[in-house]
Amino acid sequence: xxxxxxxxxxxxxxxxxxxxxxxxxxxxxxxxxxxxxxxxxxxxxxxxxxxxxxxxxxxxxxxxxxxxxxxxxxxxxxxxxxxxxxxxxxxxxxxxxxxxxxxxxxxxxxxxx
Amino acid sequence: xxxxxxxxxxxxxxxxxxxxxxxxxxxxxxxxxxxxxxxxxxxxxxxxxxxxxxxxxxxxxxxxxxxxxxxxxxxxxxxxxxxxxxxxxxxxxxxxxxxxxxxxxxxxxxxxxx
Lengths: 113, 114
Fold this sequence. Notes:
The structure holds two protein chains of two kinds. By secondary structure, chain A is mainly β.
């Protein structure tokens, strides 16, 4: 079945460092891909999405490109801030799965001043 | 409010008791989802309602779990004869009906089984 694998955390970075969180997927058909973020004590929020190959989703300085050839959707940010400390979840919604999301296990990011 | 609302925010109950968790979706959203977030299993899909269609129950872990959605709006997730492994945060999300529309999540109900 469909699945998502993302790099394990926790990831600890200094402020202004470059961030990459790897995400790869297995899916039949043509899934849509998402990154969700969960800040401490808060609910899941959609960070960005891409619905077809080569699409780039972006929001709040974060970017991810839908790479069908490598089945990947890596999350990047050029300069992280302390306020980016959160848990990041990669997810897919398969074309033949109705609306349900399949999530990766989450990656905890901690940014130090 | 404008977001997905879940109640209660926290629930502590004894093993063997039944619990009901409530979700109020965003007004106008025809799709509603329940997920479970637990330490050992991450985020798992439970059940999905879309309009008047039969729900997708493929993620429900056992027949102790059931859910209904009345009037196409509010949903209740019921867990009967709770077990300690049911302890988790139960998340509800809603979206507009189209497949590519993003899901908006509530803050969840933290369920603890003693």
